[in-house]
Amino acid sequence: MKISTLCVHIFTQFPAIQHLFVSFFSSIGNFFAKLTAVSFKTMFRLQWSTNIPENFDHRIDLYHQWKTSKNPLWVERGVFNVVALQMFSEPITVELCCGDGFYAKYFYSISSKEIFSCDFDEDIIKIAKRYNSMHNIHYHVADIRDGIMNIFQNNINQGSVTNIIWDAAIEHFTEAEIAEIMKVIKKTLTSDGILSGYTIINTDKNKKLLEHHEREFTSKDDLRSFFTPYFKNVYILETHYPERSNLYFYASDAKVPFL
Questions:
Q1: What's this model's pTM, rounded to 2 decimal places?
Q2: Residue 6: which pLDDT band, with cuts at 50, 70 and 90?
Q3: pLDDT tens, position by position, 198-213
Q4: Quick one: which of 203, 197, 192 has its CA closest to 181?
Q5: C-alpha gyration radius of the chain
Q6: Fold for domain 64-252?
Q7: Phi/psi of residue 128, nearest 5 degrees
């Protein structure tokens, strides 16, 4: 008899034993959950106390900040990009400025046939490969200002990518850099391919939200103006939380989500 079958038999006959085991493993789980939360809380404070990094380890969100803030923003980012991925049966995905690879693994990998992710930070790509590897994710150290096709070389062909994800990163580039990157994005996508992503809203032009930001956006229309020269259809939705307001975008010459 299989162990699982035996356990079911025992628990059916003796529910008190089942309750005892559930309580025991629940207590163990709670202990390690608290220990993990404290670990990532400490890690966050050490990382962000001085020399603020240009990327974020999303295990901090998963194990510490979500529990503390109750803010689902970091989950929103993954979900709204998945909506674009699910417009295709077997998406070929390019993720620009991927950071720690958390979204590639836990959101995009299940919907994508292949994912090609890059970031200019060699250390964060090491973290991505160590903690967020999957059989269909390919991580590269590269600066997207060097051109998508140059970065991925023979891995993808021009005009063969169904989805490009530019999440929480467009604001890290100047207006001129964004324009040049947009031209390459357009050439890289299929005729019905979709560019999707996220950025934060800042209505105070005199103060940046993060020192690494080059071009922050003040509204939907402000952001839309960067896409309309290249794509026929642009849809942007907005969400608000106590600490920040957010813009999610979709751009394509074909159908886009919610439009």
A1: 0.90
A2: low
A3: 999 998 888 998 889 9
A4: 197
A5: 21
A6: Rossmann fold (3.40.50)
A7: -60, -45
